[in-house]
Specification:
The structure is a single chain. Helices cover 73% and strands 0% of the residues. The protein is mainly α. It has a single domain, classed as Orthogonal Bundle (MetI-like fold). Helix 6 crosses helix 7 (145-171).
Amino acid sequence: MADTTSMPMEASLAKVLVQRRAVMLGLVILVVFGAAAILAPVITPFEPAAMSVRNRLTAPNATWWLGTDEFGRDIFTRLIYAGRVSLLVGGGVAIISSLIGIALGLAGGFFRRLDGPVSRVIDAMMAFPDILLAISLVAALGGSLINVVLALSIVYAPRIARVVRASTLVIRELAYVEAARALGVATWRILVHHLLRNMVSPIIVQATFIFAYAMLAEAGLSFLGVGIDPETPTWGTMINTGRQYIDTAGWMILFPGISITLCVLALQLVGDGLRDALDPRISKEL
């Protein structure tokens, strides 16, 4: 028998893609950046660290497609490899922060004794500006790719936790959850099968936005010099270096800035499309 429960969701997604071309555009941009990141060794003409001092600060031409930096390194090559890092950070943060947020949200929403402490922790973390909390955590953990992902995951986990907690407070009072508890169903089964399965849509949407926020935050940390190792090409590091040559080599800051803008904009468009498709109230209007 065919699974008919997924058909309305698939129809809503298809309808959003057809009726809202901006969502399709965002999806295409993400696919292009993702494919470029995966195929970086194949499509890039140089090594990211290869220097050609006599060709330093060369404007874009047939050989150096996007120009070179102050050490004669190819901007196009470094841009593609930097995209790998940004997408890896964004995806890692979206996954880890979702796992942390789900655990906190379910614990605070389902177990009444834990609701107060969990809520206070969430409120305390969200009281700090994201970038300041991220800088503090990275400074404490040390600057590396793994530490940046962990720090940003801690920063953005409360966003998921609030969504999950609010949904849990509503769903735990429903009749089928009360019936499962009365029948002696294991708590973990209730949490996973009765609660979490009904929160997948808002979690996915929120994770999409966190993906974009994490990419921006990573670029900001790299720009400030407290993020990933400066030897590793990132869009934030490229912009930080390029601002010193903005009058003579504007391409050094232009192309990384465009890449960040396009990626974040695409994620926001896809996130809006997912929200419209997965929200029953909005999907009916579509």
